[in-house]
Amino acid sequence: MLTLQSPQRIKQFSVSLLLCLFCVLMASSSASAFQFGQVQTGSGFTIFGKISLPNGKPAARVKVYLEGSRGLARDTIADDEGQYEIRSLPAGRYRVRAVNPEAPEQMCDPTESDTNRAYSNRLQIDVFLKLPFPQEKQNFNPGAVNAEDTSIPKPARKAYEQALKLQKDKQPQEALAQLTQAIELYPTYVQALTERANLLMQQNRLPEAEADFAQALKINGRYAPAWRGIGYCQIQQKNFAAAVKNLENAFTLEPNMPMTLLLLGYGNLSLNRYEEARQCLREALRLDEKSAARAHVYLGEIFAHEQKFKEAAEEIHTYLKVNPQAADAAQLKDLETQWRGKAK
Fold first, then answer.
1. Any residues with CB less than 8 A from the CB of 51 and at least 6 apart, and which?
2. 81 domain residue, yes or no
3. 74 found inside a domain
4. Counting CB atoms within 10 angstroms of each CB, which of 9, 240, 242, 254 has the fewest?
């Protein structure tokens, strides 16, 4: 069992020529019937797309919600391949989001597009689910550069510092280019490798991110931010056993980081290790209740597992007091109501 005082590692796709010709002919005839996304037949638009899980796999059977700019609202269920389709829609701008009932902690930024961009009368809008940690992290940066470290060439250091500035200015692609330049100039630049991995992870490029974290750890095996980063990356990919092992390494090196404990609690909870999860989550809250507030949601899950629904509901209520504008606030309010009902 993991203890906060003495952490231990925990072991664990043919299409015939006729069909192709038919499609080409239909596309050619359609060109005269449509003019930059304007349907002439009156059949309306079809919005379709794919919902993906945080690990990039199809999100089967998730709920898909569509909202139009004029108040129109529709919903549907994605199929087993994460594909959805909503037909007979008027022209306009649309927003699509998804909810995974099997993993309510997953969330997404609504994806928008306009029927002016549609080919014929079909508009594709894909949605990517993600975990909430990046929006609630307190300090996930790879650490400051030691001003006395003369081994880092000045051009590499300058590129790294420029990348940090670009990130603050919300220019992630430009920041990514600067970090790559810094690494090319100085291949053992651990901070730059870790920061690039964080950016790649935020863009859902998880295998690339994990590779950068691993490279950083080859260079410096005692660099806690890289252990924490690779653990978080593995949580995104649902590789919880490996994530817990790596997060324990981060905890050993930096025992007072609330984010490490929050992630470690979530990883243990996902492995049904309820007591380990409870201990980590409570310690995260003790260290910094605001930055680790999501721990209340996971503690609520533990209480619900134990049939303690009153306590479970109170944990959700506490979290929503701290983060009333949380992206999944409506879902959590419903969950709180359900648990209060069971408590009665």
1. 58, 59, 62, 64, 78, 82, 83, 84, 98, 126, 127, 128, 129
2. yes
3. yes
4. 9
**pLDDT at residue 144 greater than cutoff 80:** no
Stretch among 85-89, 117-121, 212-216, 223-227 having the lowest mean pLDDT? 117-121
Do both 213 and 300 map to the same domain?
Answer: no
Q: What's the token pair of residue 49? A: 């797309």
Of 84, 111, 128, the domain-final residue? 128
Give me the phi and psi of 111, to 5 degrees please: -100, 130
- Tens-digit pLDDT profile for residues 283-331: 999 999 998 999 999 999 999 999 999 999 999 999 999 999 888 888 8
Percent of residues, the chain, with pLDDT higher than 70: 80
Same domain, 222 and 89: no
Place of tokens 């630049």: 189
User: Would you list the DSSP string of 74-104?
Assistant: EEEE--TTSEEEEEEE-SSEEEEEEE-TT-T
Residue 176, pLDDT > 90, answer yes
3-state secondary structure 137-155: CCCCCCCCCCCCCCCCCHH
Rounded-to-integer distance, Cα 22 and Cα 7, Å: 64
Question: 54: domain CATH number?
Answer: 2.60.40.10
Asked if 115 and 174 sit in the same domain, the reply is: no
Domain span at residue 113? 36-128
pTM, two decimal places: 0.61
- Amino acid in position 64: V
CA distances from 46 to 59, 67, 84 (A): 20, 13, 10
Is the same domain home to 158 and 190? yes
Residues in the chain: 344
Same domain, 143 and 255: yes
| Residue 28 forms part of a structural domain | no
Domain count, the chain: 3
Helices and strands in the chain: count of H runs, count of E runs: 13, 8
Token pair belonging to 98: 């998804």
